[in-house]
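Quick question about two entries, pasted in order.
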Amino acid sequence: MSDVGLGSVSPSPSRSVVASRPARPGGKPGPSNTGAIAGVRLTIVNGDQAYGTDGKVIENVDIHGYVRITGKRVTLRNAIVRGGAAKCGAVVQIEAGASAVLEDVEIAPAATGPCLDGIRATAATLTRLNVHGGVNGVATTGPDVLLQDSWVHDLAYFASGAPGGGETETDAVETVGQRGITLRRDVLVVGPRGNAAWQVRQTGGGTSTDLRVEGSWLDGGGCTLNFAHQGGPPMTGIAVVGNRFGRASVFACPVLVSTRTTLTQYTGNVFDDNGAPIPAPGRHD
């Protein structure tokens, strides 16, 4: 599929591209070290964009539209993606069979709704993202997704209108029947009306395995991490290592694990405020 710009590129002297990019501070992800880089001017791109050329690189852009990636090894770097009129889907969609690298990208929907996510990803490396405003921040709709050094926060909640009816279920990261998902050094916060910082389900016909969350800051939801079996074979191959938890989960529940789920690794997880170990995972069917 060729690349299609359904709108237009509108550079201006005040928003032109500059070649150099300053180094970013390290440490806990937040406004200073995720999303588009301060001091690097962006070219405004108007309208929805579809990127289907293998190996294409898009950088230093402010996209006032939705992004759909169908090519392999597509790179989107130093960008803001704003979507448009609210719809069902995702602000950035990486389709099945595609693959992508996103670096220093802010996903900031101009309008949101009860069935709009920030990014739906497969075969992707996502680094230093600032994701906010959608119902789910990152939905791993395929295998082999790495989310690292990213900030997912201030997600949307709707009391009604979710697919199937009723209120929305807000997750910073949602995984359903996928393998090879790694969350590393991220800040994932959903607040008390959110469901989970990471919700994993076995439903959907796939097998959830080879899952890892490490070195991250996690807070909110009913339970902050929720590994729910909900059908299919038992879930194994899950590592929860070296994370720091807040205390904003509704049920005082950092980790909830189904009775048909095995945590392969569970070490070094503490409360962020005092460094005390979090309790053993809660169990449920």
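Here is the second entry:
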Amino acid sequence: MALLALVSIPAFALVPPDYHEPPNNFRAEIEAGFQLNTGNTDSTSFNGRTRLVYDTSKATQEGTFKAYYAADSESTTAERYDLQYQSNYKLKGGYVFGRGEFVSDKFGAYTDIYTISSGYGFDAIATGRTKLSLEVGPGYRYNMPIDTDDDPDPSAEKEVILRTAAKFEQKIHEYTTFNADLTAEIGQNNNTLLLDMGYKNTLFQDWAFKVGVNMKYTEVVPEGSKQTDTITTFNLLYTFQ
């Protein structure tokens, strides 16, 4: 009994009874699965996505990387990489942000797209189950069109844009969440509209099944290209924090 008492005293000194683990501000999602492409590319294959979020009382850092690859019996039919990064500095009534995105799409209407923007955002709705954030601000876009027979050596399109975004999240119940992000980029020469939706259902613990739909409309595209690209994904998702 004396020996147990001697061992217990240092243990309570090192770990007080009211000790709590410090909050973890880091969150990550990793998903992969099957995809169906329609539009400029028609194929089925696999895709992957990684999302990292670091959220503190003063700022939020978020980075996302997406990869899509498909091939048939003869050649590669789809190859796209998308890297996004956004930094939000929190204010009393909202936040200011800086954002950058790079897209490399070998078979898209535009093979390389660089977009940078900044502006102001706020939470229009923020309840326990529903959240709606709105963003607006100026930016700059660089587009490299795909080679065509009429224009085998196209010139890059560069222009100032106005970017607006609405980010919606609805927690249907404890294990099911629906997300929908709508982004519009308005420029003097071209306009784009992007809708990114996801339905996530938790299977067990940190594993979930996710259905995603990504639709992008580009008003002006090279000859022979379609204005709308759609990617539908069926993924297994793992979340850790």
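Reply: The two ends are 41 Å apart (CA to CA). The chain has a mean pLDDT of 89. Hope that helps.
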